[in-house]
Amino acid sequence: MIPYGRQEITEEDIQAVVEVLRSDYITQGPVVPRFEERIASYCGAVRAVAVSSGTAALHVACRAMGLGQGDRLWTSPITFVASANCGRYCGAEVEFVDIDPATRNMDIGSLRMELERAEAEGRLPKVVVPVHFAGLSCDMASVRELADRYGFWVLEDAAHALGGRYRGERVGSCRYSDAAVFSFHPVKNITTGEGGVVTTNHTELAEHMQRLRSHGITRDPEHMVGEADGPWYYEQVDLGYNYRMTEIQAALGETQLERLDDYIQARRERASRYAELLSGLPLTLPEEDSNSHSAWHLYAVEMSLDSVREVRRAVFEELRNCGWGVNVHYIPVYRHPDFARPGSDAKRFPAAEAYYQRALTLPLFPALTERLQSDFAEDLGQAIAAARPVGSA
Ligand SMILES: *Cc1c(COP(=O)(O)O)cnc(C)c1O
User: Fold this and answer.
1) What is the position in ligand 1's atom list of the atom closest to the CA of 82?
2) 182 near 196, Cβ under 8 Å?
3) Which of 226, 249, 300, 312 has the fewest Cβ atoms nearer than 10 Å?
4) Which residues pair with 181 in a beta bridge?
5) Residue 149 burial (C-beta neighbours within 10 Å; 0-12, 13-18, 19+)
6) Region 347-367: what's the mean pLDDT?
7) What is the pLDDT of residue 301?
8) Residues 231, 85 contacting (CB under 8 angstroms)
9) How far is the centre of ligand 1, averaged over its atoms, from the C-alpha of 231 (Å)?
């Protein structure tokens, strides 16, 4: 099966990991802080806090923003469940804002309208999590404007967008947000096996997240409630977690990061090749906008046929039979039974629903060859022709 995405591990990666394994520290050593500095400097942010997953990164960021019971977190429904679960871990209510059909990101017009309504009803969100779907940045300048007006924290779920740009700056610079979260799961743009990081320009937020990833413990007298009892002393000042990244993971991340720009270039090239190969098919293809350079984490098309539901299913099954690991990103989060609650029925999200009925994610990763791409395009064309309802245009 040719997957929709996959990691690349080089001899250099293996050497870096082996070196850590032979060293004194396999966790809590010098490599994690060095990796954090490199990520911060790559993104153009003041600080980076590395953790055990993108999900953990979202969780500590929400905690550090003070999200808790009685609060609300708003996010996009077209995302992985983790973007929403972080709110629930904190005891907050999670609500969704419909997407913009063109970018598949949170729709700014809908966000503005929902905020007006929420203000009138006294239920404004404390944290808003825009998701940069497929690596294309959300309209962050507009989100910032609304955040300043309504007073919510902006947490970017940039799990798809490491290496992407928005208004000339790298995603993760946090110019328009309070923090940005990345994931290093093997399917993402670079990997540490499992892993994640939060970038931010708020030093205090960074320090709070550092404590939360390590049991809420501090050794810094400045953060202690009491007096240090002696040189051995530390205090738990907050209920934290063990969300630390290991040295082994960080070493892999460092060498992967050196190749990130090459990977993004390779993804861009493959995305434009798809645009050429698929231009004759009845599909809506993903596009960039004038503000954003996508990191092209996913290449998600939409079928533009009648009876799309059946056609999409038939095309999906035929491609899987041919050995192509196509996928659907994502099942709208509110559709999951564990999210079912009053006010989150599908009818409230027409754009997310329309997208979900038509979406198909194609294979896209740096090692995908030209040959494979044109073979895929051919199989996709045939699968669509075969699945087309009789008599349709
Ligand atoms: C992958 C992903 C996450 C979670 O990252 P993990 O490292 O797998 O925990 C969160 N949000 C989005 C949009 C993702 O794609």
Assistant:
1) 10
2) yes
3) 226
4) 157, 198
5) exposed
6) 95
7) 97
8) no
9) 39
CA-to-CA distance for 115 and 328, rounded, in angstroms?
30
What's the pLDDT at 155?
98
Q: Which of 88, 105, 181, 183 to mutate to test the pocket of ligand 1 (most atoms within 8 A of CB)?
A: 183
Residue whose structure tokens are 């079912």: 340
Answer yes or no: are the C-beta atoms of 213 and 240 closer than 8 Å.
yes
Distance, in Å, from the CA atom of 173 to the CA atom of 167, rounded to the nearest integer, reads 11
What six digits make up the tokens of 146?
Answer: 């609304």
Q: Is 392 exposed, middle or buried (0-12, 13-18, 19+ CB in 10 A)?
A: exposed
| Residues with C-beta less than 6 Å from any ligand 1 atom | 53-55, 79-80, 82-83, 131, 157, 159-160, 183, 185, 196
Mutating to test ligand 1, I would choose from 78, 88, 156, 157 the residue with most ligand atoms within 8 A of its C-beta, which is 157
Give CA separation, 318 vs 85, 310, 323, 324, 343, in Å: 33, 12, 9, 9, 36
d(CA 17, CA 226): 40
- State how far the Cα of 331 lies from the Cα of 277, in Å rounded to an integer: 27
Instruction: State the average pLDDT for the chain.
Output: 95
**In angstroms, rounded to a whole number, what is the distance separating the alpha carbons of residues 97 and 83?**
13
Instruction: Please check whether residue 18 is in contact with residue 175, taking contact to mean a CB–CB distance below 8 angstroms.
Output: no
pTM of the model: 0.97
Residue type for 97, please?
V
Mutate to test the pocket of ligand 1, among 4, 78, 83 (most ligand atoms within 8 A of CB): 83
Q: Which atom of ligand 1 is nearest to the CA of 196?
A: 7
Burial 131-148 (b: 16+ CB within 10 A, else e): bbbbbbbbbbebbeebbe
Name the nearest CA neighbour of 302 among 133, 115, 148.
Answer: 133
Could you tell me the distance, in angstroms and rounded to a whole number, from the CA of residue 389 to the centre of ligand 1? 36
Pair of tokens at residue 295: 């990191």
Mean pLDDT of the region 3-28: 96
Give the atom of ligand 1 at the shortest distance from the alpha carbon of 131.
13
**pLDDT digits over 356-365, tens only?**
999 999 999 9
